[in-house]
Each structure stands twice: as C-alpha cells, then as structure tokens.
Hints:
single chain, alpha+beta
Amino acid sequence: MMYPKCCARRDWMVSCDVPGRVFLRRRCAHQWHEPELTRGDFDAMVADPGQKYPDLEAVARDTGHDGTLAGSSLLDASDAGGGG
C-alpha cells in the first residue's frame, strides 16, 4: 500500500479501535480507516504490543506520527545497504 500524498510505503502507525476498525496513520499525522484490514490482520501485526500508552495521541506523539516528523521516513538496514 502506498500513501498517495507523500508516496510512503512504510513507517505507518497501525491502530485498531473498539469496534474493530483498523486505521493507518502517516508521519504527517494523516489518518484514515482502512476497510481492507481486519482485527485479525491487526492482531497478526501486533503480537507483542510493547510499551503501554494512555491514549492514541500519546502513541502518535512518542512515535513521531503526530506531524512532528512529517515528510520523513525512517530507514531500516536494507534501505541503508546494510543487508541485515
């Protein structure tokens, strides 16, 4: 999946609200419901939730998905040519 505004293909924040709707959020803070993803998909992506946060906005702020890092994309080892 690619976000059309900035052509990003990674660095998504994935969240799931109480009714089971999955949302995607870019670092520019644009968020939308993604109807093709189910609660089962979300659970498969988030096996160990890790750190606990009081609310979704705290997660967005702490991970840079609140607009602070708009226009950026974090690299992983394969992007940097490290190959793992």
